[in-house]
């Protein structure tokens, strides 16, 4: 079997250069990478990464625990995390909890045991106790589970304030908030707190609706939307805590011939691609999805390097006005 | 450090049972799993999965190479693959090529070297040469890259036929096909072939449009849609090769006050959740996304077990009529 020295000779580069390419360390020119990879191929050299990871005590794998990668927000977040992790030479093990606590627990045991270098957790299940006893670097997204574990979120409170200000300014009087279940201890709850604070300071009336605790069921969003229009036809402004909930509102409004934005104004949250695709295009609170993903990866890498990290990272949001307000 | 025997005694079960839980083999009751996990936690036992995988020469990881997990079809496909792989005790390493051949090549080298147990490839880049020299089990999705490598697809040809039949039956005369670039050697091209065959047998005129080869740019879909309505205002029926392209058509039709389905009828492809959310809800060709994902995983596992596998798996599609036809 070929050795690293054989590859160096074949590629016409130093043994150190080959080692750097194999370990993806330091600055690597494309030319160098190509030379070494070509020599490896010609010599049928297959470095055993599992053996290497044992020796180096690192796997260069980050585990990502999310509720559902097919949800537009989590799909875009996963892409952001994967893309940035790749640029930092980390791979991504995707763990979809599907909001099933047993599945999540099983994944977590597996991640704890398999020497992934770090875990990014954006799960929505209730019990976070399990996460407090993880040896690896951990970062949570939109969830604060202890005073020690770094988390990244967008400025949910400010997002709620911006949405309320816009609806009030547009003349809405009967204003609804529709969001995820507040029993889930997510930072997304602050969207409601910021929204409520502004509405309470106005002369508007606030109506509160929440989804089932086992969320992410689009059919449930449609039923919720239908119920709101049926029970509170006076509502003329709606802030939904995700673009996909807002989409269900728009669909139901169209079915009932309620004009948007004439009869009822609607604001979503996230600014996923969906918000630009639906009709009418949705006014929404934009989360910096790319920055959230990159910051989470950076916080993992800093912990791996034993650097000090800040526990709280709250990134700014902005209101993006389209045609529903 | 605790041994498996210590755990067995602590949990009050046999050593074999502990081993089965650790290796996730055979029928495992929830009670047994809980007992063993509790004993492991109490004894601070951390099985080293990397060491185990070396010993057993398996990683129980499947690598998944896709163009873009945030594209609705690939997001739902990834969820289907992850969910089924998990039920078969495999984990998923997510590799997003982002249609970048260099990134894909780098991922592939890594997967070849890292002893993943198998690779599922749904990539859209042009060069598939690299995939012909992989030692691990390989399955491709919607792509036939050799006569030896198993692939899974939906019945793209039949999908095209069904779409054409519907548009003809609804009285369309000037019919457009809008799809991915045909230079990409994807089986999705057969959607056009089936569609063209039916249109050619009718008295309708066929207009053909294709996206840029570096696809998945929603803004590009909108420009394409605008160009079609501008240059061929006579078009009264459109078959788009993905729901997301169809969504761009609907958005442009709305902007131009072209009634759907009165003035122009639209059919998509995929039946992702988006097709139910947009207004009006989209008539589309439904791909069996869950079955495609499950079949791909089964074909990997069968190859791992050295079982014979069929090279071609073509799963049935169906037309789902909503409000755009």
TrEMBL record, chains A, B:
Keyword DNA-binding: yes
Domain of life from the UniProt record: Bacteria
Pfam families assigned: LacI, Peripla_BP_3
Domain HTH lacI-type as annotated: residue spans: 2-56
Protein name (Swiss-Prot/TrEMBL): LacI family transcriptional regulator, sucrose operon repressor
Keyword Transcription regulation applies: yes
An annotated Gene Ontology molecular function: transcription cis-regulatory region binding
SUPFAM superfamilies according to UniProt: lambda repressor-like DNA-binding domains (SSF47413), Periplasmic binding protein-like I (SSF53822)
UniProt keyword list: DNA-binding, Repressor, Transcription, Transcription regulation
């Amino acid at each position: 079997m070929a050795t690293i020295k054989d590859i160096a000779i074949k590629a016409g580069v130093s043994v150190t250069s080959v080692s750097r390419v194999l370990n993806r360390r330091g600055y690597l020119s494309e030319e160098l990478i190509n030379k070494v990879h070509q020599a490896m191929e010609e010599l049928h050299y297959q470095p055993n990464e599992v053996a290497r990871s044992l020796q180096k005590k690192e796997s260069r794998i980050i585990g990502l625990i999310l509720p559902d990668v097919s949800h537009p927000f989590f799909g875009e977040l996963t892409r952001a995390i994967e893309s940035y992790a790749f640029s930092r030479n980390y791979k991504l093990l995707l763990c979809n909890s599907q909001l099933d606590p047993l599945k999540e627990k099983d994944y977590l045991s597996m991640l704890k045991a398999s020497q992934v270098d770090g875990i990014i957790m954006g799960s929505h299940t209730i019990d976070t106790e399990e996460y407090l006893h993880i040896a690896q670097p951990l970062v949570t997204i939109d969830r604060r589970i202890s005073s020690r574990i770094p988390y990244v979120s967008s400025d949910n409170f400010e997002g709620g304030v911006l949405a309320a200000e816009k609806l009030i300014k547009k003349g809405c009087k009967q204003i609804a908030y529709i969001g995820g279940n507040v029993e889930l201890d997510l930072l997304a709850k602050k969207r409601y707190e910021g929204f409520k604070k502004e509405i309470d300071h106005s002369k508007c009336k606030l109506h509160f609706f929440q989804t089932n605790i086992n969320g992410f069921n689009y059919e449930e969003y449609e039923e919720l939307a239908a119920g709101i229009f049926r029970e509170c036809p006076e509502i003329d402004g709606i802030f939904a805590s995700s673009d996909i909930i807002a989409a269900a509102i728009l669909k139901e409004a169209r079915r009932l011939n309620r004009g948007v934005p004439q009869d009822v104004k609607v604001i979503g949250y996230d600014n996923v691609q969906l918000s630009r695709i639906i009709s009418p295009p949705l006014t929404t609170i934009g989360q910096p999805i790319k920055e959230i993903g990159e910051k989470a990866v950076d916080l993992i890498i800093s912990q791996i390097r034993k650097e000090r990290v800040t526990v709280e990272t709250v990134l700014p949001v902005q209101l993006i006005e389209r045609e529903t307000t």
